Amino acid sequence: xxxxxxxxxxxxxxxxxxxxxxxxxxxxxxxxxxxxxxxxxxxxxxxxxxxxxxxxxxxxxxxxxxxxxxxxxxxxxxxxxxxxxxxxxxxxxxxxxxxxxxxxxxxxxxxxxxxxxxxxxxxxxxxxxxxxxxxxxxxxxxxxxxxxxxxxxxxxxxxxxxxxxxxxxxxxxxxxxxxxxxxxxxxxxxxxxxxxxxxxxxxxxxxxxxxxxxxxxxxxxxxxxxxxxxxxxxxxxxxxxxxxxxxxxxxxxxxxxxxxxxxxxxxxxxxxxxxxxxxxxxxxxxxxxxxxxxxxxxxxxxxxxxxxxxxxxxxxxxxxxxxxxxxxxxxxxxxxxxxxxxxxxxxxxxxxxxxxxxxxxxxxxxxxxxxxxxxxxxxxxxxxxxxxxxxxxxxxxxxxxxxxxxxxxxxxxxxxxxxxxxxxxxxxxxxxxxxxxxxxxxxxxxxxxxxxxxxxxxxxxxxxxxxxxxxxxxxxxxxxxxxxxxxxxxxxxxxxxxxxxxxxxxxxxxxxxxxxxxxxxxxxxxxxxxxxxxxxxxxxxxxxxxxxxxxxxxxxxxxxxxxxxxxxxxxxxxxxxxxxxxxxxxxxxxxxxxxxxxxxxxxxxxxxxxxxxxxxxxxxxxxxxxxxxxxxxxxxxxxxxxxxxxxxxxxxxxxxxxxxxxxxxxxxxxxxxxxxxxxxxxxxxxxxxxxxxxxxxxxxxxxxxxxxxxxxxxxxxxxxxxxxxxxxxxxxxxxxxxxxxxxxxxxxxxxxxxxxxxxxxxxxxxxxxxxxxxxxxxxxxxxxxxxxxxxxxxxxxxxxxxxxxxxxxxxxxxxxxxxxxxxxxxxxxxxxxxxxxxxxxxxxxxxxxxxxxxxxxxxxxxxxxxxxxxxxxxxxxxxxxxxxxxxxxxxxxxxxxxxxxxxxxxxxxxxxxxxxxxxxxxxxxxxxxxxxxxxxxxxxxxxxxxxxxxxxxxxxxxxxxxxxxxxxxxxxxxxxxxxxxxxxxxxxxxxxxxxxxxxxxxxxxxxxxxxxxxxxxx
Length: 1018
Fold this sequence. Notes:
Number of helices: 7
Largest sheet: 28 strands, mixed
Helix content: under 10%
Radius of gyration: 34 Å
Structural class: mainly beta
């Protein structure tokens, strides 16, 4: 029986191969999985790795107790609520009550569409609604808006070089309907105008001041306290609110799909408010989840001050805009922007801080709203030290909260909401065949910035900023951190040496993302750190964007704390960093993922400490949530990953699994790179805690010597055979402490070449449903990894990049000392890499074509103390020389016994009377990746110092050797009774492809002649 994934699809098949016939067992697999769920027993005989179900199974009534067994780990900060808004304050210093001001209407001549410039002789106050052509407030002039209901200025554009005031921080305008309506078509359909009065917007020029403060309602958005059923007209919120009758509110979707023609965001009008209870003008059309794990956001969509485009803006998607340029000061609080933004016009956004340099908190947006925008919402461009607080963006084309050029630093995005985000000019294909690279998107007339093909709630081109307490619903992702190598656009000319990609994250705390990651079917995520954006020539705004995995980031140390995701394909996706980036690369602390297909995918040195992952919740309103959840998938190679204090909930549907390995390759294979500690499982059958996925070597995902060569490579993939996990025992039904979980691949599945490699002693337990052997470590065992190469190398060989080379990868089998039935295929598909358990188990290498004249053993992952005893046979009379390189080489002395090898820290070798070379492989300088109380051996030491940690073995003779398997190592046998007198050895003979002349010399301290010692056989 073999379970595998076809490279062409994500669906797994389960078959039993008997006498050349293939019997399909898909139905049986599903049936057995259902039985496992029903019984919740650790039963044997089920198929592992079976295919995904396409029908979502909803929780049954008897699941209620288990569903409620939830303890939050993401303790999220939230904005202050009732009692902190404008209604709770006493207004002081009101600009509209200032004496000695003149009436703005005195400036009007009565002619239609009159262009008006405010004189500098006195402040002027607008007291009645007026319509003008354009309005200029020159330097030295000041215009103040009165606090009067429906006080609206209608103009084609407003230029502020002096001062524009609508209220103040201590005296917000309380009357509704105050604001500016922008009319006309500005420069639509023609060349972009450099004249501020030709742009249909509010332009605050160098030296200008715009203070706009409407009522602050507290909170500006909150969440449901309990679920709201379809048909409900009353909402129970989790905070008291000071909202008012007649105001609009938004109830955000808790389904996965969030497309313009298929979404469940609902807008209603308030008819009554009492504390945390809100009555609506009409029933909800859809249900919205408000459970213990997560709840729909509910946002206020009304403000007392409004900047808006005219009704004609909708037809051409060319609304008003506001911009604050360098040298100006803009403070906006409690302001709504409706029908604003000009689609695909650079710089024309609803709220925009433009090239202002470091403002040190002097310009900001707080308690604001953008609703129905044609291009973005809040744009921070070439500006640092600003703030966007407690604001909402709803129904937005393009990315909403936007750091434009990648040079923006030390800005604060706090307690903001993004919902219903629209991709601009959506692609037909985001998957490009399902690979990691995604697709390449370039600037075009219908989408001037290609990242808008992946529009998101929060677009984060520079990590050196702070995101706290925000929530993002919809879009390609909720939060996106693309790789940006150089400053973009106009910022490049100012600082051509600036590299956004090198900047490390300041803070990412208490953020939530949901209902996104659907359009990229292969890898879509609610939070995405990846993709690459650059210009064809720096600064020319001709962009190209690789949507998927591109070159690794130069900055690491991404720490996300108290983060929550739900209704996603992947909760978080992180593609990794350069080797020289700050470590760890990516960290999830107090993380929650609910109703997701996968919690996270994280490459590099990463950890997740403190987490809750729910395969499904009681959200029965959403009919499109993932029907199968694979809680966490290990990556294939060169990773360091720790999961600590993670709770897996409700992995009880067919095909759900908490942790699964990745075995899609013969050449990208695992070291010891995954540890789990203090895991908990709720509502999850024992059989679904882990899954070893088995795939065929001839149908792997990579080009190697086995691809499509099924008669040559009929067994399982190389990565399947060395798959491993180290668990502290919390996931196992035993009291033996920490365990190595290693693939249970057997000879019948591997063409006879690998068998029970991970069965370490008689205390091991075969977890059949998982597909792993579980063996205790006794606090001593570790997982180590080697690269075995023909020849000797003084620098890193090219095979480290290509991963396979049949000309230098030796072919044979690797055995446990004393266990001829426990072995590993060496050289499958041209891969030189092997991984296994250390260090009470010796490894004996026997090559198909006999011994090699030169052999390099790279210690890619090796213990710093103890050491792995490695042995291989040479022809009688061969003179052998061993060097140890860390990375510079020194000659290893030759001892007179195996005990000399055992007693030495890797600096003594020994050849016994049968020609068997014994070495202790040790890397004293190796260190540990540490997280969650775990110390995991560092891997990738083959690259160390540009030369790698390695042992070089040279023999004067090569070729035919006996198979002479050493006995188990003395004194450290586990769980078996060993007869010290037994020296029986299974012997076979292999013929070398080439044979060196044998030269017999006297043994020295640095070399020895094979077969000349009198040491007894092991």
